[in-house]
Design goal:
Length: 296
């Protein structure tokens, strides 16, 4: 499916629902995307595609083109890295088995976070966080909401500063597979592997180049050039890295919840000209006609 870069299109290929650590149900997420003018959306919940069916039903009634998506956690030289999978076959048996293993890893991580936060004195913390996640595996934002409601912290930012942020007790590293293995899962299911928000790992320029090199060697085809919360300098660096490595360029808001104006659906810095967009390499979704070619 070719989605031309034109003013009429708004493409967001990275966001989250209650199927992982977002705060909106898949249908509500898609509806909000439509209200924000998004024309093409990938719901990329962490290590699951459980929300895909609900999202697709809503997308059909909202007039949004939905692309299959997920965001998989993995390890690169002991560093946790996220790889977005796009346009894969959601019925692929091997891929679904891999997702089931990832999902269990997330439950093991949630249980460990609960153990480490026992000193907060919140009773039934895991059960309460699970309820915040709609009955599914809770992520750190869900634990943060419980800590706020229980009066242990004043807001989510303080919850991360004291308990859940990098280096804090609730910053639990799960037993993720290696980067190369996760990339292979996606490509074997007919999808495109995208290195998510490369600047958020806080790697030096040299280490990030090494990561991108290893990612491409494993079969990765794209990096997120434009995402929320990055500076124009970050954008320029990633554009150059994308060109040097001859990778496809992706973009996405990484939206998790309403109320954060810097991270809203469809609110993405314009991708510079001269890059090959990842969406030019998507397969045509069944029964959906190609968009009109306008200025592509």
């Amino acid at each position: 499916m070719t989605i031309p870069q034109a003013p009429v299109f708004c493409i967001d290929l990275h966001c989250h629902s209650t199927a992982s650590d977002g705060l909106l149900a898949p249908a509500d997420l898609v509806q909000r995307a439509a209200e924000k003018g998004v024309s093409h959306l990938a719901v990329t919940d962490h290590d699951t595609i459980d929300g895909l069916s609900e999202a697709r039903t809503q997308a059909e009634s909202s007039g949004i083109r939905l692309i299959n998506g997920t965001e998989l956690s993995c390890l690169w030289k002991t560093q946790t890295i996220h790889v977005v999978g796009l346009d894969f076959d959601s019925a692929n048996p091997a891929f679904r088995e891999a997702l089931a293993r990832q999902h269990e890893n997330r439950w093991a991580r949630a249980r460990m976070i609960t153990e480490r936060l026992q000193k907060t004195g919140v009773a039934d913390l895991l059960e309460k966080a699970t309820a915040k996640a709609g009955g599914d595996v809770p992520g750190r934002p869900h634990f943060a909401r419980v800590l706020v409601e229980e009066g242990r912290v004043k807001d989510a930012a303080q919850a991360f500063k004291r308990y859940l942020g990098a280096g804090k007790p609730g910053d639990v590293k799960a037993f993720w597979p290696e980067l190369s293995e996760v990339v292979q899962w996606i490509t074997a299911a007919g999808g495109i592997a995208v290195l998510a928000h490369p600047r958020k790992y806080r790697l030096t320029a040299t280490k990030l180049r090494n990561l991108v090199h290893d990612f491409k060697r494993a079969g990765g085809r794209s990096i997120e050039v434009s995402t929320s919360g990055q500076s124009s300098g970050d954008l320029g660096f990633l554009v150059e890295l994308c060109r040097q490595q001859e990778l496809l360029a992706s973009q996405g808001s990484d939206f998790h919840f309403p109320g954060a104006p810097w991270c809203e659906l469809g609110k993405i810095m314009k991708m510079p000209d001269g890059l090959e967009p990842v969406w030019h390499h998507f397969k045509e979704p069944a029964g959906v006609p190609s968009p009109v070619q306008s200025g592509a």
